[in-house]
Amino acid sequence: MKLSAAQGFCYRFGTGIKAGADLLALLKSEAGYGSDRQRSAMLALREGAKSGELLSKSMERQKPFFPPLMIAMTRVGEATGRLERTLLSLGELYQHRIQLRRKFLTSIAWPGIQLFLGLMVLSLLIWLLGAITPPTGGKMFDVLGFGLYGTSGVLVLWGYVSLFATLFGGLIWAYFRNLGGVQNVVPILYMIPMIGPAIQTITLSQFCWTLSLALDAGLDPIRSIELALDSTDSDYYRNRAKDAKQAIEAGASLAGALKATDLFPEEFLTRVEISEISGTDAESIDMLATEYDGKAKTAVGTISAIATGLIWLFVAGLLIFLILRMAMNIFGGYAEAIEPI
C-alpha cells in the first residue's frame, strides 16, 4: 500500500468511525478509492466484517498489501476500543513521512531538471553531428571526440545513462532490502560529516513517532519498541529488539531498554530519561517526537542541500569537461590544418 494511500485511508476511516458511521458503509465507500488492488482489499475487508471478523484479522489475510504497522495498530485499537483515535494518529504519522519525502524531492527537483536538460542538449549535439553532412562529404568533425553520431550515438549515450541510473537505483534497493547484511554499515554511515547525523536524526524522528503512537494506543512497552524499531525500515535496528525486550523483562525503564540496544546516541537517551521523569511514557515520548520532528525537517533540508550541491557540481563539471574537450579537439584540428604538407 502506497504511503499516500495509507494516510488517506487512516484519515477517512478514522474520521468516519469517530462520527459514528456504519463500518460496512465505510468499507464500501473505501472500495471506491485507489488502485484496483486497493479496491479489492477494501472489498475483502468488507466481506470479513460481514462475517464478524475483526478488521485487523482481515488485513492480515491481505498480506503484504497492508503495512505491518497499520495491522498492529488496528489490532490494538480494536482491543482498547480506541480504533478511531489510533487510525487518526497513524494517519498523522504517515502524513509526517510524506511531508519529509516531499520536502526532499522538491528541493532536488530543479537541479535534477538541469541535469536532464544538460543531457538533452548533449543528445541534440550528437544527433546533429550525424544528421548534418559537410560540403566535402563524409561525417561532420567530431567536436566531442566520443565517436558518437546521429540516432545511434544518442542511443549509446542514453544507454550509459540508463546503466548508471540502474546501478545507483540497485544500490539503494539493495540497502533497503539489506542484501548481504549491507545495513550493518549504518554506524559507519553515521560518521560521515553532516550527512550521517542528518540521516540518524530522521531515523530517530520516525522511531519516536511510532513509539509515541504505540504507547498512546495502549500497547505494552516491549511490543511498542519492536514496532518503532521496525518502522525505521532497517534490519540494523530491527535486530536489536530482543535486547530491549530482555532489558524490560529484567526491570529496566524505557530509557534503559533503549540503552540496552546500543543503537541510540547518549543525547537521545538522556532526553528519553528526562521525559520519563517529567510524565507518563506516552506523553513524554509524544513531546520528544514533536521535538525530533522539527530536527528531522532541518535534517532533510541539510541532506537536500548536499544532494542539490552534488548534482550542480556534476552538471557544472560535465559542462566544463565538454567545453574543454570540444576546445581541445577544435584547436587540435586547426593545428593539423596549418601544418606544412
From TrEMBL:
It is a multi-pass membrane protein. It holds the Pfam family T2SSF. It comes from the Bacteria. It is found in: Cell membrane. Gene3D superfamilies: Type II secretion system (T2SS), domain F. Its main location: membrane. The chain crosses the membrane at residues 104-129, 149-176, 188-212, 303-324. Residues 9-127, 207-324 form the Type II secretion system protein GspF domain. Belongs to the GSP F family. This is Type II secretion system protein F. It comes from Novipirellula artificiosorum.
